[in-house]
Amino acid sequence: MKTFSPADIIAYYDQTEVHYRLFWGLEKSMGLHYGIWDKDARTLVKAVKNTNRQLALLGNITADDVVLDAGCGVGGSAIFLAKMLGCRVIGITLSEKQVATATYFAQEHGVSDLVHFLPMDYTQTTFADASFSVVWAIESMETAADKSLFVQEANRVLKPGGRLLVGDVFKNHTFPIDEEPTMRAMLNGWAMSDALT
Questions:
Q1: In angstroms, rounded to a whole number, what is the distance separating the alpha carbons of residues 78 and 83?
Q2: What would the 3-class secondary structure string for 14-76 be?
Q3: Cα dihedral 47/161/88/29 (nearest 10)
Q4: pLDDT in tens, 155-177
Q5: Ramachandran class of 173: left when φ > 0, alpha when ψ lies in -120 to 50, beta otherwise
Q6: pLDDT tens column, 74-116
Q7: pTM summary value
Q8: Could you give the CA distance from residue 190 to residue 142 in angstroms, rounded to a whole number?
Q9: Residues with a known catalytic role
Q10: Alpha-carbon distance 85 to 52, whole Å?
């Protein structure tokens, strides 16, 4: 099984951003996600925004929350939360290119006072203990080679009673990725070494 380093993950996102712009409507969705499709979300842009809406409802996020967007990509979720709910959000990503894009999008959407983006590894942040009421990860947690490190760090930075919200790719049963060449090729194409059940 291939294990992807942080440098591999940065390279993947830096090299593919242009493809997301050309083929995935990145300027409108501001998300590098498949999204949640339903009867009201019949386009990729709507599906990405639907994911943000549903996860925010599930997590009961309000203007009083301080959210860590772990693996924020180009900032779409952070911008959505700030615009729709008025909460403060710090987005982190390994890619400095994504930080620049996210910062640009936040300025364009008038939420620079509520959102801030930093280059940082979500498995080992520099935030103080109990800094956030919510840790949010949409289609980002699975790029961690060791998912338990992500969960441990989320637990450390969450305030007592805080919420961990994850929307990602999961297996519906346990099977070795190396024995499933199609699954291995698909995950490796997204810089993921494995997926949790």
A1: 9
A2: HHHHHHHHHHCCHHHHCCCCCCCCECCECCHHHHHHHHHHHHHHHCCCCCCCEEEEECCCCCH
A3: -10
A4: 999 999 999 999 877 667 766 66
A5: beta
A6: 999 999 999 999 999 999 999 999 999 999 999 999 999 999 9
A7: 0.88
A8: 10
A9: 139
A10: 11
